Structure formats: structure tokens, C-alpha cells
Known about the structure:
Blueprint: E1 2-10, H1 41-49, E2 57-59, E3 62-67, H2 71-79, E4 86-91, H3 97-111, E5 120-125, E6 129-130, H4 133-148, E7 155-161, E8 172-179, E9 184-191, H5 196-205, E10 208-218, H6 219-229, H7 231-242, E11 245-249, E12 252-256, H8 259-263, H9 270-273, E13 284-290, E14 294-295, H10 300-306, E15 315-317, E16 320-323, E17 329-332, E18 337-340, E19 345-349, E20 354-358, H11 365-374, E21 385-388, E22 391-399, E23 402-409, E24 417-419, E25 423-431, E26 434-438, E27 441-445, E28 450-453, E29 459-462, E30 469-477, E31 486-489
Parallel strand pairs: 1-2, 1-3, 1-5, 3-4, 4-12, 7-13, 15-17, 16-18, 17-19
Antiparallel strand pairs: 5-10, 6-14, 7-10, 8-9, 8-10, 9-13, 11-12, 19-20, 21-22, 22-23, 23-30, 24-31, 25-28, 25-30, 26-27, 26-29
Amino acid sequence: MIKVLPVILCGGSGTRLWPLSRAGFPKQFLALSGNDAKTSLVQEAVRRLNQLGSSSISLGSTLIVTNEDHRFLVLDQLREMNGVHGTLLLEPVGRNTAPALTLAALFASQSNTDQDHDPILVITPADQTIQNTGAFTKALQNCISVVAGDANNKTIAILGITPTAPETGYGYIKRADSKGSFAEYAVEQFAEKPNLETAKAYLEDGNYYWNGGMFVLRASAWLTALKEFRPDILIATQKAWDQKTEDLADGSTFVRPDTALFSSIPSESIDYAVIEKCPGSKYNIKMVELDAGWNDLGAWDAVWQVGNKDAEGNVTSGDVLLSNSTNSLVHASSRLVSTVGLDNVIVIETADAVLVADRSKSQDVKHIVNQLEAQQREEKNLHRKVARPWGWYDSVDEGERFKVKRIQVKPGASLSLQMHHHRAEHWIVVKGTAEITNGDKVITLTENQSTYIPQGQTHRLANPGKTPLEIIEVQSGSYLGEDDIERFEDVYGRS
Length: 495
């Protein structure tokens, strides 16, 4: 029996899909594939890899490498998948994919029994879409067979995406002509993102494939190859790993490498650190072809490509009305959006921002994000409605010296014990039951009851009930920023 661990790389901010994707809620947590309007990209990735088991393949628990700030987003999405638990390896800062995979390999090497001390890792990003999951499963199972068949444990398999156009936004893999027993080819070389003429030549050649960043290899193969090609990354990651901490939440494990040590790791991708150095080395690198409707959803045009189109070529989501419009993507989040006489246009509406773009220029959304960052605007990172481990809040209105929020708290959850230096708060319960700590008093409020939290008062909001709690919060004061908070106790480790 071949022991396999699925590894999902769940980092990145998806800036080209702004304003729907933001740093605080990036694209991997959105439902964008067109396959299922309720299933996010990371959920699809987890589900696909958990279909790899067979009579000869034993699947272990899924490893998800993600940002510390996104841990409860991942946990919430795992909760929605019946019976799926995972281990979350939490990066305090993003250091690219090579350190992320190293965390997974270190975990796999030390967390299994002697019999399974060197499992095969199947690594995929969290933000891709696959139309033909059967073909995807078969291709990855072939990769697993290729890796398992090497007694020296030095084979790395990579999926090569069958190209459908002369794309200039992807790296390429050049295969050899001869095919192996599991439909694999030797890799001759890797090519950087080409210009258009070179990409056309690659397509005509027939031996070049897109590199989708999906790999299969033993944990030991990655660690030994990294030691040879980038020992600085291995040494730095090992030091951070040796000082890790662990805790549990809802059947899933959180593993945290040391923050200061992890921050010092060189930032590098899997490809640059190891994979592109393998052809011609002692590490066999093989390619298995994948023709399964793959897309990395790198921009809004890609979302249009995989979406369910109407007779006029439009892809819509939400409350949308179209007239004489063609080949466009229109997404409405919070209100009616209508278009008249548009062609090849992107319209993305959220509660606090609207994007209108030429579909062929959708890659250039990054320039808007750069302007938002330069102006230090909150719209770059956060939606008006912000997910929190205890629930969410929606900033429904604000003006000089006041802000109004709608807050929902999950059953059994609570906010931190906290205080604010510059604002007071009024709380009105609109649904459910609230347990409120207000200074040295603890009170219980129900629908239509309210309380006042003076500026500088220690306080906490909790939901002791079995249904969601909703309140309206009215803030007043000289400064109403989210950073005006001092936490004293917090069940989510934020104090």
C-alpha cells in the first residue's frame, strides 16, 4: 500500500481578482469555478485530492499550508465538508512556496510511523479549477505510481497542462519524446514565461506544456534536493520548525513555526529553488500530461472562461439584468446590477467597491490594487463585511465621529475581553441571546434590549445560545479604526 499525503498550498492574495478577492479574504476562499456556486476553490482542491485513494493508495490527513491570518477561514470551510479534517501549517508571513512545501515535508517526515516515515506528497495550489476531475485523478495516480516505482526515492513527477493557446502568462515544461509505462515523459527543460512569438512556437512544437505548479514526490526527495540546491532555505526552515507550537480546533491541528525564525527564511518558489534544477541531475523529473480543463483563475477573464455562459456568451452571478450585452462577466454581490449594450466587459460589484474593465485588460487590475496600497485604503485588504473566527461584522454606515456595524456571533463563540482607548459603543440585540461583560458586571440581553460600553471600559460579547446572535453596534469617538483595540483574553490566541 502506497502512503500518500495531500498537500494544499493555500497562500496568496489574488490581487488580480479585486474587488471580490482581497488580502483578508483571498480568491481561494471564493466560489469562482463555475462548477458549484457554493463550493470555494480551496474546498474543491481538498475534495479533488481526497479522491485519490484506491486499492493501492492509502490517503492520510490533508495538510494545508496557509497564512496565520487565514486559519479560521480554512477551518470554517473544512467544517462545511462532511467528515473532512486536516492539519493546518500556519505561516506567520508569506515566504513563497518553497518554505511552504518544506513545512509539509518536515511534518510528514516526523509525524508518521516507522512504516510510513517517508510518504508521497501530492502538492497542488488551492486556487485552481479543474473541469474533468476524473482525468485529473487518473493523471495524479499515474504520478504517484511513477514516484512509488523508484527504489532510490529520487523521482519527482509534475503535471504538464496540455496547452490550448499561446499563453504568455505561464511557465512551460519541455518533455522528451519517449513515453514511460505510466504515460510519463522525461523532462528536458523548463522555460520561463515567453513572449507571444515564442509561445506560438511552443504550441506548434507540440512538446511544450504549461506548468501548473502541481508536484508529486516523497518528503525525503524534497528535503534532500533542497539540501543540495538551496541549503539556506532548508536550514532556516528547520530552525523555525524546531521551535514550533501546536494546538487543536474542531478536530483539526494548528502547527505554528517560530515567527521570528520563519520571517528570516529566504523567499523562493518551489520551481526556482529545486524543480528547474532537476533536469540533468541525479533527481529524475518526470511529466504526466493533464488534459482536464485546468485554469488557475489568475484574472477576471479566466473566471469568464470557466463560467457558465448564456446564449450571448455572458457569465452572471447575483442580481443581474442584461440588455444587448455580450461576452461579458457581471457579478453582483449586494444590489441589482444592470448593463446595456456592452461587449467583452467585466463588471464586479461589492458593497464598497465596483470594478469595470475591458475583459482583455483584466490582468491590469493589479494597477488599481497598487494605487489602493499607495493610498493606504482599507478596500485593498478588507471587505465591508469582514470574517472573524467568532463570526463576522458588516460596517453598514459611518461618518464623522460615528460608525454603525452589524455583528453576528456564532453559537457558543465569544469576542475577546478587550477595551478601546478612543471610542464608546452602544449595543442593541436584534436576534438571539447575548452574554455581555461590561466592566465588573456580566449581564444577559435578548432581542430589543441594549447596553452602553463607555470609552476605556473592559468588555466582552459572547453568544451562550444555540442560534446565531446578531447585534447592532454604534461606535462614537475621536478615532474609530480597527486597530484601537487592546485584548486581555482571547480564545483564538490573539491577545
